[in-house]
Specification:
- The structure holds 2 protein chains of 2 kinds.
- Chain A is mostly helical.
- Chain A is about 40% helix and about 10% strand.
- A two-stranded antiparallel sheet of chain A has the order 1-2.
- Chain B is built from 10 helices and 9 strands.
- The N terminus of chain B is likely disordered.
- Chain B is an alpha/beta fold.
- Chain B has a 7-stranded mixed β-sheet, with helices on both faces. In chain B, strands 4-5 form a two-stranded antiparallel sheet.
- Chains A and B meet through α3, α4 and α5 of A and β5, α6, α9 and α10 of B.
């Protein structure tokens, strides 16, 4: 009964029911209802948006275009990470080299603390030092 | 040759010509269309429109003596049924390589990941605000001993091994592996009847419906990738701008991921020459002593 009232309320307010996770009720026995929750409906993903349709274009610009441009020049993101990969300590050190001079005070101090901690962790503890 | 040709003319749909192109055998350039009428052809399609001067494209680069060229029909976009304008020879070392599915996978995964930068970051106990003071004395209160309210044991405390800072997943595959990936992808498209060669991208109208109907009539599939080296004419640019699954891409933008995403590939004759030249050079080049973007004296 509770679900019927809820459905009526939604209908009066004019809301759409399709997005609501509908709950079925099974009547078993004289006066006992089991509320069965259904799995959520799969969300509709448009596979042909501009970004998805053109993903990967210009990845071979070096091979097909005289090597003047390298695919790593296409990467957008933090400048200390473009076309480069490293573990956490290496990333912290590189961030300090590139951007440390203009970081906020508290962030810079946290970065230094992190570098100090990771150096000691990698080079003084554990099996691989 | 004429007998094989007539069988092919009557079958109509994309079929590899087994005979060599006319130019090589010294036969006349314009084969007469001998109407080989079947019950099947009468039921399938209207009679073919065959031009009197077919476009025959030979391979410009040398083919090894133990292999022969693969072939594809040259089509045209000027009329919705212009499917047999000519015949193009394709280099076997670009369009008929071993179908290495593992290389396709490797290159597609590389394309997905090399430009990925994950921005997930969580604060450690040192970075979470607060937590410098010992919350209660070590002994006497009856509660568990703690040094800071931001330790990982506490609610609202720092995370120990969480994602740390923008992480980059950049790596590069060897150049020859990426080149081979392109060759395998082009081979797969040709061998699965998904490659169509077009003499040019001239269209009679800029109506997107014309392009969509043409693709549907010729059974190109759900998605079409059209590649050209030169500047594309306005008509096709306008038509493809409003279509989601038909995309125009310059030849520099060809890549394995797009070839796997789109069902059909449409290349122009100039693009064929461009791709063959670029991809075959790697088969016989010296190893790079220094990066290729720096000047070399023996090749441009």
């Amino acid at each position: 009964m509770g679900t019927l009232l809820q459905l009526a309320r939604w209908g009066l307010l004019g809301r759409s029911l399709s997005l609501v996770q509908t709950a079925r009720s099974l009547h078993c026995g004289v006066s006992s209802w089991i509320h069965v929750k259904l799995p959520p409906e799969p969300k509709e993903v448009d596979r042909w948006t501009e970004k998805r349709a053109l993903f990967g274009v210009y990845d071979n610009i070096g091979i097909l275009g005289d090597f003047q441009v390298h695919p790593k020049d296409l990467i957008t993101g933090p400048r200390w990470l473009q076309g480069w990969r490293g573990n956490e300590l290496q990333r912290c050190i590189r961030k300090k080299q590139f951007v440390g001079h203009r970081m906020f005070d508290q962030d810079y101090k946290n970065l230094n603390k992190r570098i100090r901690f990771l150096y000691r962790r990698f080079n003084r503890t554990g099996k691989h030092r | 040759m004429i007998r094989a040709g007539s069988r092919l003319w009557s079958r109509g749909a994309a079929a590899r010509a087994l005979a060599t192109s006319a130019g090589r055998l010294g036969l006349p350039e314009a084969p007469e269309p001998s109407p080989h009428v079947d019950a099947t052809t009468q039921a399938e399609k209207p009679p073919l429109v065959i031009s009197s001067a077919p476009v025959l494209r030979g391979c410009h680069l040398a083919i090894p003596s133990h292999r022969t060229a693969v072939q594809a029909w040259v089509e045209s976009l000027r009329h919705y049924d212009d499917r047999h304008v000519g015949l193009a020879d394709l280099h076997p070392d670009v369009f008929a390589v071993m179908p290495r599915v593992d290389i396709l996978h490797t290159v597609a995964v590389w394309q997905r990941n090399y430009k990925r930068i994950s921005y997930a970051k969580v604060k450690t106990r040192a970075e979470v605000r607060g937590g410098g003071k010992k919350p209660w004395a070590q002994k006497g209160s009856g509660r568990a001993r703690h040094g800071s309210i931001r330790s990982p044991l506490w609610r609202g405390g720092g995370i120990i091994h969480g994602p740390r800072g923008p992480t980059s997943y950049y790596y590069m595959l060897p150049m020859k592996v990426r080149v081979l990936g392109l060759k395998v992808a082009l081979t797969a498209k040709l061998m699965q009847d998904n490659l169509h060669v077009v003499d040019g991208l001239d269209m009679p109208t800029f109506d997107p419906q014309y392009l969509a109907d043409l693709a549907q009539y010729r059974r190109w599939g759900q998605s079409v990738l059209i590649v050209d080296v030169n500047k594309m004419p306005e008509n096709i640019t306008k038509a493809a701008a409003s279509l989601k699954t038909i995309t125009l891409v310059p030849a520099l933008g060809l890549n394995v991921y797009s070839l796997l995403k789109y069902e059909t590939l449409v290349l122009t004759l100039d693009t064929l020459a461009f791709l063959e030249e670029k991809l075959l050079w790697h088969d016989s080049r010296y190893t790079a002593l220094y990066p290729f973007h720096l000047p070399y004296s023996d090749f441009p």
